Fold this sequence. Notes:
Elements: E1 6-9, H1 15-26, E2 31-34, H2 44-49, E3 57-60, E4 63-66, H3 68-80, H4 89-117, H5 126-149, H6 163-174, H7 183-193, H8 196-201
Parallel strand pairs: 1-2
Antiparallel strand pairs: 1-3, 3-4
Glutathione binds next to helix 1 and helix 3.
Amino acid sequence: MAGPAFTIWGRLNSHNVKKVAWFAEELGLAYVRHDIGGQFGYTDEYLAMNPNRLVPTIEDGKLVLWESNAILRYMAAEYGGPRWFPHDPIDRALADRWMDWQFTYADCQRLPFLSMARTPREEWDVAAIARDVDRCARQLAILEEQLTRTLWLSGGEFGVADVPMGVYINTWFHLPFDKPEFPRLADWYGQLKDRPGYAANVMIPLT
Ligand SMILES: N[C@@H](CCC(=O)N[C@@H](CS)C(=O)NCC(=O)O)C(=O)O
């Protein structure tokens, strides 16, 4: 009898859960996902696995793991191999840094996202949103520059290092604020949109 499937715990309207569900599809991994967190609340069983009261968490055989980018690295190593995460230490480090860098970006996107996607329009703090959008744009200029030098954040081809910012860039392009033009970012986003796992798990209504 087949063992338990790779299990993802977390609601899909979470950026960090989207990363894991999308990447599972890129790897062709059979998985089950259970809604938990946010509007679904938590169970004691879940909090015993992840005491941070955050999503996502995965179970894979005897492994229980939280922290979305650590999960992505595990998935790439266990199920993907060098195609997804280069063995060469220099290539790997250059790709890997964009995964950690995403948390820097997430910090400035938090307020516009929570304010615009999860708050009635009449309650938006327009000045605060504009300040954070400006901060996000300054950070995205760094990504734009990188994408003039490599096609993907992972290097010459799409890989795991494109996933964290790949999720966040969908939100950047969808939230209704004025934004500067970033042509290479727009190209990169256009290519992500053609990936079925991205369309199914990331390009869903922002809620
Ligand atoms: N660094 C953590 C952050 C996890 C996190 O902040 N998750 C958010 C959703 S994106 C969360 O769980 N919020 C509370 C909730 O959903 O109940 C990771 O990358 O996994």
